């Protein structure tokens, strides 16, 4: 009986139709995730009028959304290693699709908050599962670039939401944006038919026919059979015990805590900038149109940083690229606090986007590859769940800074601190205990 190392087959494969199918579905799912998350800020001014909300009430609803996303990361993300990533993705799409529609139909702010909170559970659970699946099914040589490009769908979704809001919200109202959230539900049957389940999940359940079918799409020349041994005994042995507990076994404690710190730092910077960048620039003397243009540049920088960073990671490795980006971020934010030239501001804010959103997009596959397949989604989801505490605290921390006697633009200095902390946390990661080292060592062996 032939022994087939599934991770090795995928690692050595060449990007083909199957990989593209997985990429497009993951891109689609994460794009609607970004679309849904952006809806709140876009529709907020009109919604506040409709529901007669105060600034405090509006901020509280936004915080409940972030809490829902954090819980979704913990609960749904962790379940994906138990009930399957495909099922979790379907559940997440169902949740944020249906409850976004219901939020748009809500007659009062309380109902809206409840619907939005439930939708946020799906938003929080989707991201770790999507990244884990894309990491699992990407060829090793282009893995970082593929995952980073896929995650750009998140930014694209947010940009589409902004454009739709700019052109139709005034005539059709803020609720129309939430009604569009039903689209993923309409495509769910096609998703369930086309999207593959995680190989590690199928191996644990001895589903040889499905595994062979997937691997023959990954590598059409492999001629894999249901009777092959897909490391059933070894995978089941590794899968014993609670997935969350395994984040702290096999010398992973230091690296797990380092990942938590890195993501906490990244999300603190991302959500702090997304929330307060327009306000900081307005307080620095720029008009509202210019202030919003800075937000657009920030988004473009996030996409550019993800793609360029992914390209570089595939050539020199995650560690060198991420360390450079954390360092560049600290320099960038320090410079932003003392710069007045308009063109230089745009350049620095684009770099700031690359070194926050772009960095996080590269940290995600780094974490995903570090953990073995059977706990990959758990590792990423728990890490992101912890990191979302930074997202929740960010608006408050920067808001408090802006109430002091500091010049608004000097608040950028605060973002240099988590960038430095993230860099030190990266240095603490012990790569020798990560699963990607084992993949690299086995890729020269035959299946």
Distance between the termini: 12 Å
Share of residues in helices: over 70%
Give the structural class: mainly alpha
Mean pLDDT: 85
Low-confidence segments, given as residue ranges, are 437-447
Q: Which descriptor suits the 3D outline?
A: globular
SSE order, as H and E? HHHHHHHHHHHHHHHHHH
Question: What count of helical segments does DSSP give?
Answer: 18
The counted number of beta strands is 0
Largest sheet: none
- As a whole number of angstroms, the C-alpha radius of gyration is 22 Å
The portion of residues forming beta strands comes to under 5%
Task: Present the secondary structure layout.
Blueprint: H1 6-12, H2 17-51, H3 55-83, H4 85-104, H5 109-136, H6 143-172, H7 175-179, H8 183-194, H9 199-204, H10 208-218, H11 232-239, H12 253-283, H13 288-316, H14 318-336, H15 342-370, H16 376-402, H17 413-428, H18 435-442
Helix pairs in contact: 2-5, 2-6, 3-4, 3-5, 3-16, 4-5, 4-8, 5-15, 5-16, 6-13, 6-15, 12-13, 12-15, 12-16, 12-17, 13-14, 13-15, 14-15, 14-17, 15-16
Report on this model:
The chain is mainly α. Helix content is 78%, strand content 0%. It has 18 helices and no strands. It has helices at residues 6-12, 17-51, 55-83, 85-104, 109-136, 143-172, 175-179, 183-194, 199-204, 208-218, 232-239, 253-283, 288-316, 318-336, 342-370, 376-402, 413-428, 435-442. Helix 3 runs antiparallel to helix 16 (376-402), helix 5 packs across helix 16 and helix 12 (253-283) runs antiparallel to helix 13 (288-316). The radius of gyration is 22 Å and the shape is globular.
């Amino acid at each position: 009986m032939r022994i087939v190392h599934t991770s090795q087959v995928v690692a050595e494969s060449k990007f083909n139709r199957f990989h593209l199918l997985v990429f497009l579905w993951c891109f689609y799912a994460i794009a609607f995730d970004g679309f849904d998350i952006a809806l709140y800020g876009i529709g907020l001014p009109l919604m506040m009028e409709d529901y007669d909300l105060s600034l405090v009430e509006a901020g509280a609803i936004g915080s409940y959304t972030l809490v829902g996303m954090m819980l979704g990361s913990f609960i749904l993300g962790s379940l994906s290693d138990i009930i399957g990533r495909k099922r979790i993705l379907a559940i997440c799409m169902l949740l944020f699709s249906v409850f976004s529609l219901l939020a748009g139909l809500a007659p009062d702010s309380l109902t809206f908050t409840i619907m939005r909170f439930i939708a946020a559970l799906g938003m929080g659970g989707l991201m770790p599962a999507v990244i884990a699946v894309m990491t699992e099914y990407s060829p090793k040589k282009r893995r970082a670039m593929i995952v980073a490009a896929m995650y750009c769908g998140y930014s694209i979704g947010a940009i589409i939401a902004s454009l739709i809001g700019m052109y139709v919200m005034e005539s059709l109202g803020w609720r129309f944006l939430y009604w569009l959230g039903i689209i993923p539900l309409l495509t769910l049957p096609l998703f369930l038919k086309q999207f593959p389940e995680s190989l590690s999940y199928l191996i644990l359940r001895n589903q040889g026919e499905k595994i062979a079918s997937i691997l023959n799409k990954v590598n059409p020349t492999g001629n894999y059979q249901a009777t092959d041994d897909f490391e059933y005994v070894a995978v089941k042995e590794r899968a014993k015990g609670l997935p969350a507990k395994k984040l702290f076994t096999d010398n992973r404690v230091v690296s797990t805590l380092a990942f938590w710190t890195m993501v906490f730092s990244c999300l603190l910077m991302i959500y702090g900038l997304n929330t307060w960048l327009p306000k900081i620039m307005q307080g620095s003397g720029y008009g509202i149109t210019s202030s919003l243009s800075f937000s657009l540049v920030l988004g473009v920088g996030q996409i550019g940083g993800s793609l360029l960073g992914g390209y570089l990671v595939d050539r020199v490795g995650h560690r060198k690229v991420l360390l450079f980006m954390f360092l560049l971020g600290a320099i960038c934010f320090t410079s932003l606090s003392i710069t007045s030239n308009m063109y230089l501001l745009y350049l620095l804010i684009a770099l700031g986007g690359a070194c926050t959103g772009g960095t996080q997009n590269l940290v995600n596959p780094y974490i995903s590859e570090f953990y073995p397949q059977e706990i990959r989604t758990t590792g990423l989801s728990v890490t992101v769940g912890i990191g979302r505490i930074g997202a929740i605290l960010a608006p408050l921390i920067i808001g408090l800074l802006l109430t002091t006697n500091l010049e608004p633009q000097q608040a950028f200095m605060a973002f240099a601190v988590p960038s430095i902390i993230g860099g030190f946390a990266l240095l603490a990661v012990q790569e020798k205990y990560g699963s990607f080292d084992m993949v690299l060592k086995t890729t020269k062996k035959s299946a």
